[in-house]
Design brief:
Length: about 325
């Protein structure tokens, strides 16, 4: 048995291993996958002193209950998450964006995310995982990645290859903010939609439905009228593209999306807004705002600069 490992007492709703994702496999139908909220993924690794591209444990809504067995190890949780650490008879209320040290026999209970979807657990060391196509990111729809492409299950063990000896306390003062106005650029089939349909898309409010997961986000609201064709020859898709099927309700493609699709594409969510988009829970209201490509590029540079500045503070 591995000396340092976690025992999964409760796996949580949707707990998977994720890293930066796998690049350049679209031609064989493999999307990037990877952490849904890239900023929180990077911050989690930096807090525990890891390489920024190391795998972390991503969870949705309710996270795992883990028992740790082994040498002292630092952990950090990022996102808007409630969690507790049990050390014998002592229970410690966890705080996101700071490190905690686990000792042999301690339990980590990731209770839930708060008005958000995804949270991230990083450990000061390396998980013992198998990589597939240069990444361990788990895509449960295709059974690709670590853990045989599946979600974590109760009574599994998570082994560690090694742990960091540096157990220094780290903290970042950071607050997640919500977003309601999602900025988009026009999609390749923008002109398939009527003037009224375009007006509805940019002026009306949509509700995130319960039919939302790592693959896509379905929206409900006023129908967006298509005046050309509700089905097209299948074309390549990218993360953040917004398709509109025959029922007129938009679908936003997320990290585990299919790589081709035959619904017209009205827009694409800009990369700078993606992290905050995926954290919106079912029932949340969103509106779309059009920006030009040049503005989207500038906004991404600002987002990336802000992310790097946050990491440099740790």
């Amino acid at each position: 048995m591995n000396k340092n490992h976690f025992e999964i007492i409760r796996a949580g709703v949707n707990s998977t291993f994720q890293d930066k994702g796998r690049e350049n496999f679209y031609h064989i139908g493999i999307p990037f996958s990877g952490a849904m909220d890239n900023r929180n993924y990077l911050i989690a690794n930096k807090l525990v002193g890891n390489n920024l591209e190391f795998p972390v444990l991503e969870f949705a809504y309710q996270g795992p209950l883990l028992k740790y067995l082994g040498e002292k190890i630092n952990i950090a949780i990022t996102g808007d998450v409630s969690f507790k650490i049990k050390k014998g008879s002592t229970v410690i209320d966890g705080i996101c964006y700071q490190t905690f040290t686990l000792e042999n026999g301690d339990e980590l209970d990731v209770i839930s995310t708060n008005k958000s979807v995804y949270g991230y657990l990083a450990v000061g060391g390396e998980f013992d995982l198998k990589f597939q196509w240069l990444s361990c990111s788990t895509n449960t729809k295709a059974n690709i990645g670590a853990n045989n492409g599946k979600k974590l299950e109760n009574n599994q063990k998570i082994n560690l290859l090694k742990i960091n000896q540096n157990l220094n306390y780290k903290k970042l003062n950071y607050i997640n903010t919500r977003i309601e106005n999602i900025r988009v650029i026009k999609g390749t089939n923008f002109d398939y939609f009527s003037d009224e349909g375009k007006k509805i898309f940019f002026e009306k409010e949509f509700t995130i439905s319960k039919l939302t997961d790592r693959m896509g986000m379905r929206l409900e609201g006023p129908n967006i009228e298509n005046i050309v064709d509700t089905n097209i020859k299948s074309e390549g898709l990218i993360k953040g593209v917004i398709q509109v099927p025959a029922d007129g309700n938009p679908i936003i493609m997320l990290s585990d999306h299919g790589t081709i699709g035959g619904y017209p594409k009205i827009g694409v969510v800009i990369s700078a807004d993606y992290d905050k988009l995926v954290q919106l829970t079912p029932g949340s209201k969103v509106k779309f705002k059009e920006v030009e490509l040049s503005s989207a590029e500038t906004l991404f540079r600002l987002y990336d600069l802000e992310t790097q500045n946050l990491i440099s503070q740790i």
